[in-house]
Design brief:
Elements (H helix, E strand, L loop, with lengths): L4 E5 L12 E5 L7 E5 L7 H4 L6 E2 L1 E4 L4 H12 L4 E2 L2 E3 L3 H8 L11 H22 L4 E3 L5 E2 L2 E5 L2 H6 L7 E4 L2 E4 L9 H16 L3 E4 L9 E3 L5 H13 L9 E3 L11 H6 L4 E4 L11 H9 L3 E4 L4 E5 L11 E4 L4 E6 L4
Amino acid sequence: MAKWFEVTFFAVGKASKGGDAILVRWESEKESPESILIDGGYAGTYADLIERLPDEIDHVVCSHLDRDHIGGLLELLHDKRKKCSNLWITMTRELLNETAALGRVGANSPEGRVELVLSSVQDGRELLRLAQAREVPTKVIEPGSKIGPFQVLSPNDRLRKSLRIRPTHDVAVSHNIFTLDGLTDPHSARSQLFVEAAVSVSNELSTVLWSDFAKSIPGGMLLTSDAGPRALQNAVEAAEARDIDLANLAVFQLPHHGSELNFDEACQMSIRAPIAIVSAPATSDAHPSATLVRQIRKAGTRVFSTRGTDLRLQNYELGVKPLDFSLEFEGHGLFLYRIDLRG
């Protein structure tokens, strides 16, 4: 069993703008604790994280390319005060190049959301460039990969290929498939369908991670980033192949800041735990979804949101005073609590 570990969900972002940044630290065979940083929030929020991150980070994980996840990682790799030993990214350089080949569209057009996706692709390429310049080894996230104590459950190559963002191919989103002839008419209904598909594709490529910290958490913890129904189903299938039961977790992260569309009824049946954690903006009325929270509470899950302060899960005695609550997992000696690490 792990001697100690802690998982901190940082409250990154401002007001109604959220994002994801999760720091995992644990005691290992090395002289000093090991660490993983999963995402870094928006650009500009990294300044709030600098003092709370270790000087040496063993693994930096870019779960996917949305700017509320990758922005802070770009700033981290610019910051030479921090050493990063490994960078993990969900998309290969070839797929990044292929996606960028779509060409650019005007930000004020109906395809403005595609512009955001293409900008995120450019961010992904820039992240790889910065890692190469700093000689940080870069690894593609694959099912079966182990990142510290975590196992990767999604995405796999099959899912990536089905989600490739090309206007002459099928674009799969959640429960629908749209076949497009191209973006010849920027105002056509078919183009607008592609806009919706492109944004969802980014989320469906999110990295899904599981760990029980060497049996320190019976059932384990699932981190979902912005995964949607297809990515989560992919994760369920991968878990079943490894005899991991995602319907009997100890704790899981609600995907996409608690979006109702990302965690549908099928997901709610196959992914369950007594505790759900949400990386949510401080003042958003939409995240987490009130409807989704009600639904999973009926199933017996307690929901905790960051909402401006950090959440930490750990398996050693509380050494700080929690702001709002502390919760001990019965019989497991695990503590979940809310604390503002900045003050």
